[in-house]
Amino acid sequence: MAADSARARDPEYPNLRTEVADAYRSAPAGVVVEVIDGELFSMPKPRPRHQNSAGSLLEGLAPPFRRGRGGPGGWIFLPEPELSLGDRPDLVEPDLAGWHRERLPEAPEDAAIRVVPDWVCEVLSTATRRHDRMVKLPMYYRHGVGHVWHVDPDAETLDVYRRVTDGWLLVLTAGGAMSVRAEPFEVVEFDLGPLWLW
């Protein structure tokens, strides 16, 4: 019996069921596969409108917060990074993630990043909205992510969550063409309008 259980363990992900690890590795093209709390989830790849909002957000944040042009710098941002969080692990791919540079001073050698982001942004879609809110948001809290943004191109809204002692605190809801100072990037005013434009 012990030999059977040892043989069933996946060498790369020994805390995941073998069938979950195998399905994660063999995901078909056009599908995003994530493993959260040992369960496999699959969703369609982001559509162009979704990618456009993520790209526009990154274009707005990178000059002041990555490069220090008109802002403090000190951040690393990655689009669609592969994250491996915790011992089990949770294997996820947020639309955008950011780290204070001192927490991720060099590019990781492995494809999967094991350092918990300081900030994550999920761009909501019909296919991912429930998953992003009900499954990923609690998972990010468990791992200690400091802030999560939900960008919704259909509703043209931004929700900003801050991690507090007993859960997530919604600190900002904004939309349309508003200009906002949104945590953790509140030192620079940010125009939401470009997020919705093609």
Question: Can you describe what's shown?
Answer:
This protein is an alpha+beta fold. The protein has one domain: tt1808, chain A. It is 27% helix and 30% strand. The strands form four sheets. The chain has a six-stranded mixed beta sheet with strand order 3-6-7-8-9-10, sandwiched between helices. A two-stranded antiparallel sheet has the order 1-2. The N terminus is likely disordered.
What is the CATH H-level superfamily? Answer: tt1808, chain A
Strand content: 25-35%
Can you give the helix content as a percent range? 25-40%
What's the order of the H and E elements? HHEEHEEEEEHEEEEEH
> Nearest-angstrom radius of gyration?
18 Å
DSSP helical segment count: 5
How many angstroms separate the termini? 58 Å
If you consult CATH, what is the topology? tt1808, chain A
> What is the average of the pLDDT values?
94
- Helix/sheet category: alpha+beta
CATH C-level class is Alpha Beta
Order of strands in the sheet with the most strands?
Answer: 3-6-7-8-9-10
Poorly predicted spans: 1-6
Number of domains: 1
Query: Could you tell me the number of beta strands?
Result: 12
Oligomer: single chain
Shape: globular
The assigned CATH architecture is: Alpha-Beta Complex
What does the main sheet amount to? 6 strands, mixed
Task: Offer a quick outline of the entry.
The chain is an alpha+beta fold. The chain has a single domain (34-196), classed as tt1808, chain A (Alpha-Beta Complex), CATH 3.90.1570.
